[in-house]
Structures are given as structure tokens and as C-alpha cells.
Amino acid sequence: MQINNLYHNAVAHFSNQPIVTIATGATCAFAGDERSIREHLISDEAARHLRNAGHTVIHLFIDDNLDPLNLRQLRVAVNKDESLIERCKAWCGRPIAHLPDPWGCCESYAAHFEEQVLNRLHYVHCHPTLVRVSKLYERGLYAPAVRFVLENPQKIRDFLQERFPQYTPEKLFWPICPVCDYIDSTRVESVQNGEVQVVCSRCEKTSAQPLDSLTGKLNWKLDCAVRWSFLRIDAEAFSQPFMEPTAGSFPVAQALSQEFFGGHSIFPLNYGLVKMENKMGGKLLDALPPQMLRNIFVDQPVSDINVSRDLLVLTASRHKVLPEFTYLEFIKRILPIWLLTPQDLTWEQRELVKHGIAFGKEFLQTPVQPHLPQRQHIEETDVDVLGDLLTLLKSAVSLREEPIEAPAHSPLGDSEGELELQKQIEDQIAAMGSSKKMALRRFRAIVGQEHGLPVSKLLLLLPLEYLNLLLYLIELFLKCSTPALAEIH
């Protein structure tokens, strides 16, 4: 499968199927970092291509919430808070759907992290339908398969040994102990006459349960094969290790499905791995606009990605966030100006400002902040150059104070009236003659925009209050240093 053809291949594969169900799966034991959202985005991007081709697409996010919590997951989940770890560590080994929320804000431990994961996905414009595995078992959708597995364990093991000799599952079914509620320390001792003997090494109890009321979950690869059938899943995202032919989840589940569970076949959305330094975890969501983050993960789906500072800066230099500006250009040129008048920004613009500030801090090592006129740069400027600059500023302010036909103002200065005003400011700059070059250079230094927008655009976008303050400071300096020159200007 070619790197750029994954989505096109999906469209071609389902060309004669009007309704397509795509699934992604996860265990919501902790939120994790941004790497974990790639599989959801690959599925969502495939869904978009299919919808654009006229299909109805159902995108499911399946939380394997009967999986047991382990200590590593707990440490990540509570951000290594030792008091919470101490309070919750006894929960390890129980299904996350059965655990209370450590913070008391959701109905369960699993629900807490489902909400966090879904919020992240919504941020990057991905809106799957949540399906909880615990509810599927409760409603009996797995019941026929569970009965078959418990009554025919050797048949399944023999099949796996023949087809996948390198894969030997520890258990085919993980029962939940009816006494202590743990799932990681139980095993099925025997199945006879519709009754199951369950042994638990934690509470050291043996319990007899009717097969039809037994609680627990299938081995994950069996679980996949079964739910593909009753949920009618047509495609699912799998990273490359899951596609490994000798024991990977996809080939094993596919074979189990074909042999025992109806033969429902799925189209694998094979995607590459994401490598990223731990210190970058959690920072991408704060520093990148959602579409930019999404594009990094979905544009080359089969390729592995090494998320590095260099990759992010390169992507920022190419990703357009405004009609005339890439994200990097926005951060360097527009953001410092917008920070001077945040009250005038829309909600979307404030969000872009928030991301830009975080990106500058984390990945450019240059805090982005509003630049007030620098006294030092004024004092270092030749008085004749300051005089020329003062004349230009007065002309620009005078032009800015004249009424402009609506729309009167946009944060980018790109309304028809503002573009005409910028042209008039450019004419004023051109009229400066030989003194122009030095005056403009010093103006950039004073306002902290050495490599920013054209000066005509700066004079258009900088708030009038800012320009009037700069006028006052220059006039004050000239008056104090050279009273005669101040009188001339």
C-alpha cells in the first residue's frame, strides 16, 4: 500500500458499499500523550474521504474498559502523585470500568479518561461515537462467543498452534472474580454442565457460576474477532506491529473470525508509529493549532513520524493559519501586534494567540510578548533620523485618524479601506528619499519588529494609542536633547 494511497484505497475497497463502519480501540486507563490520538485521526480521515465519496460512515471509538488497571498506568494517570498512587494502588488488577473516579468528577475511573480522550479528539475535529465494551458484555452481545470459547478451548488453542505457532495466549477468557472483583488473577478451572469453576489467586476463593451469567472478557484477539462480527465493523486502524504476520493482532483476529465467528472480514487502516521525546508530551496540544496537529498525523498515514522540534518548526513554516501568513510568520509578525489589543480579538483569534505564545516558548525558545517602544533604541538613534521618523509617524497617525468606509478594521488590515490607507502610507515612506532606509531600520528596532511586517503594514496595524505613545516619547527625547530640533518638528 502506497503512503499517499491509504485513504484512496479505502474508498476503492468500499466503492459498492453505501454504509461503512470504522472502529478504533483503546483502553482508557490514562490519557497519555499526543501519540495515542494518531489511530483515531487515521480512522477519522478515512471516514472523511469515504463521506466525500458519498458513503454514510459510522466511526466508533471502542473503550476496552474491562481491562485491568496496572501500576504503570496508574502512575501516568495521576501524574505520579504519590498520595493518589498510595490511595488507588489496591485497585490495580480490577477492571477500570468498576473503579471509582479518583477525582470524583465522573461515574468511573474509565469514564474520567474517556472524557479526557474524547476532549482531545474533539479538539482536532474528530468526533467518534463512544462504545464501552463493558456495556456490550452486559447486554449479552458477546454471550454466544463466550460460551463457544469456554466449551471449546482446546479446539481454539489447536487452531492457533497450527496457524500461529509463535502465538500462545495466556488465557482465552479472563473471568472477573465474583468475590473480590479482580480480573488479573483469575482463571477458568473447568466448565461442566453449563457451570464454570473460577479460581482467584488474590482472594484464594473458588466459585461456581452458571456459564450464562459469568462475567469477564475474552482474550483481546478473540474479542476483536467477535465484535467485528456483531458490530459489523468494516475497517479498523492498526499500527504496523499489530500487522506482524506471525502473531500480530490483525492476522490472528482475522483468522479467528474466519474460522469460528462468522468470517466477517475487515479492511485494515495500517498506520505508522509516532516517536516523540517524553518531554514533548502534552505540549503539542497547547502549542499547535488543531488542523496543524491533525495534518502532522494524517498526511502521510503509513509513514513513521519522529515528532521533533525541527519537524514542528518546519511544519509551522508551511502551515497557513491566515490567508497571507503561515503559523511561523504569524508568531513572528502578527502575534506581537495582536497582543497589544487582545480585547479586540475574536475567540478564534485568541485561541490562535494562545497557541502561538506556547509555540514560541516551547519550540522557538523565544517568548512572544508585546513590544513597547524601547527607550534604549530611541536614545541610540541619531536625532536627524528621529526627526524624519517623527514626521513619518505624524503623517501615518493623521491618515489613520481619518474615517474609513466599513469594514473599518480587521486584525490583518486587509479590508478595502485599509489597503488603500496602506498605499497612502507607502507613498509617505517613498517621499522620504535617501533618509528612508535608516529611519525605517530604527523604527523596526524601537518597536521590536526587526524582521516583521513591512513598515507600512506595521504603521497600519499598530494601535493608534501605541503610535501616539511613540510620538510622545520621541518628541520628549528631542525636546530634552535638542530643543531647537524639537521646535522644527
UniProtKB/TrEMBL annotation:
Signal peptide: none annotated. It comes from the Bacteria. Gene3D superfamilies: HUPs (3.40.50.620). InterPro entries: Lys-tRNA-ligase, Rossmann-like_a/b/a_fold. GO terms for cellular component: cytoplasm. Pfam families: tRNA-synt_1f. One of its GO terms (biological process) is lysyl-tRNA aminoacylation. The keyword Phosphoprotein does not apply. Keywords: Aminoacyl-tRNA synthetase, Cytoplasm, Ligase. This is tRNA synthetases class I (K). The lineage of its organism: Bacteria, Pseudomonadati, Abditibacteriota, Abditibacteriia, Abditibacteriales.
